[in-house]
């Protein structure tokens, strides 16, 4: 289950009143901060959103400070505040709030270099293709440049699709193999449900991995304690002793890969790291000689080969959604064996 890459249309920010606590914009921001989704924003849309925030804040401020409704309408100090410092402060708040969203969500800004093919845009404009249309829609240049930037990014990075969250009817009619337009309220609801499942999975991983680590180490120790593994390394000479001096497994509960998602369960892979060291005492064939008549070695020397390496083991897990039960399906030690070849 890959991570969604999304674009949030300007009308969604406006509809949600920008960055109110617990609105859907803030929810998407928090999901991105948790790496549940990735957010893209073309530079032209960033400027458009900033303009809308600033304009709407000024309208709201003017409505509140209208002298006809204000008890302080004859106070010169109040008049000076409304016309100077307060407006500067408003513009600062507008800019700061947008930057805070972009930073917290790790939003990736697409520069103007992603929308340089103006022939495509003007071709759509003159043929009235979406996002252009009739009336007020005939001059939708910001949307057109934004969509071109998203398509270019998608093609350049060989992505399957970018999800566009919008409530614009013409945007929903926009036809592109690279973009999938989704109604944003339904999308946020879906991602919140997924986030609940993943949070439960991560909690189980946090609890169970320390308990499983000892079992994995025991399995690796048993695997490493096999003379046949070291025969090629030691030139197929006699081995007298295997001393496993270190075997330590570590795993990060936040690093996992969902390979299957059904209504009942999630199939998950994790890749714990094992650090191990083995000292193998073997006959050194560079010294001594073998007497074929006596059938024995003369002047033989024994050496110790110190093998120190690390590998990732693949562990497949099954997470039952009902009851939040997590168990091990398979442990693959193949990479450990490869390190001994």
From TrEMBL:
InterPro entries referenced in this protein's UniProt entry, alphabetically: DUF4935
Domain DUF4935: 6-171
Origin: domain of life: Bacteria
Protein name: DUF4935 domain-containing protein
Organism of derivation: Phocaeicola sartorii
Lineage, opening ranks: Bacteria, Pseudomonadati, Bacteroidota, Bacteroidia, Bacteroidales
């Amino acid at each position: 289950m890959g991570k969604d890459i999304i674009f949030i249309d300007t009308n969604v920010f406006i509809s949600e009143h920008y960055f109110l606590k617990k609105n859907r914009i803030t929810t998407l921001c928090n999901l991105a901060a948790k790496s549940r989704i990735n957010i893209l924003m073309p530079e032209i849309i960033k400027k458009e959103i900033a303009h809308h925030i600033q304009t709407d804040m000024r309208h709201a401020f003017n409505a509140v400070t209208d002298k006809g409704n204000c008890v302080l309408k004859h106070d010169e100090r109040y008049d000076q505040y409304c016309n100077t410092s307060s407006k500067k402060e408003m513009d600062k708040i507008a800019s700061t709030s947008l930057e805070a969203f972009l930073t917290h969500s790790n939003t990736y800004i697409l520069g103007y270099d992603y929308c340089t093919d103006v022939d495509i845009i003007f071709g759509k404009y003159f043929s009235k293709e979406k996002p252009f249309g009739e009336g007020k829609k005939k001059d939708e240049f910001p949307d057109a440049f934004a969509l071109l930037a998203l398509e270019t990014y998608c093609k350049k990075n060989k992505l399957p699709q970018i999800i566009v969250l919008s409530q614009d009817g013409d945007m929903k009619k926009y036809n592109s193999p690279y973009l999938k337009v989704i109604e944003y309220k339904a999308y946020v609801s879906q991602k919140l449900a997924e986030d609940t499942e993943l949070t439960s999975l991560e909690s189980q991983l946090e609890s169970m991995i320390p308990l499983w680590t000892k079992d994995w180490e025991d399995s690796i120790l048993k695997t490493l304690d096999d003379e046949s593994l070291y025969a090629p390394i030691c030139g197929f000479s006699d081995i007298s002793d295997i001393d496993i001096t270190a075997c330590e497994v570590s795993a990060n509960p936040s690093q996992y890969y969902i390979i299957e998602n059904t209504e009942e369960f999630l199939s998950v892979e994790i890749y714990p790291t094992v650090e191990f060291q083995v000292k193998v005492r073997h006959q050194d064939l560079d010294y001594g000689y073998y007497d074929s008549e006596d059938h024995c070695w003369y002047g033989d020397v024994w050496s110790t080969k110190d093998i120190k390496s690390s590998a990732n083991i693949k562990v497949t897990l099954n997470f039952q959604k009902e009851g939040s039960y997590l168990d091990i399906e398979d442990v693959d030690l193949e990479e450990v064996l490869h390190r001994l070849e």
